[in-house]
Design a protein that fits this description.
4-stranded antiparallel beta sheet, two-stranded antiparallel ribbon, 1 helix, 13% helix
Length: 87
């Protein structure tokens, strides 16, 4: 049996197959940052886990960006999750 968890939604998936069944396993890191500010040009000012500031990510376009902006404007604490490796 194989089990996996979607890193974006948290949904669990399970599959089974014969013992010789091979499956590639992607290696993806998920990073969470606290949103501090959104600049006029759409850059996100983020607080990293170690307390430093990161500001090289742009506010996404579309529904995700709209939700981030609305939550930030409402004064809510916004946690931004990104895949990849820290820069």
């Amino acid at each position: 049996n194989m089990m996996g968890v979607d890193i974006f939604t948290g949904k669990k998936y399970e599959d089974s197959g014969p013992f010789f069944y091979n499956m590639d396993q992607p290696v993806v890191n998920k990073f969470e940052y606290t949103l501090l500010d959104i600049t006029a040009d759409g850059l996100l000012s983020l607080l990293t886990e170690d307390g430093s500031e990161k500001s090289d990510l742009k506010l996404p376009e579309g529904e995700v960006g709209d939700k981030i902006r609305a939550s930030y404007d409402a004064g809510e604490t916004v946690i931004v999750c990104t895949p990849g490796r820290p820069r």
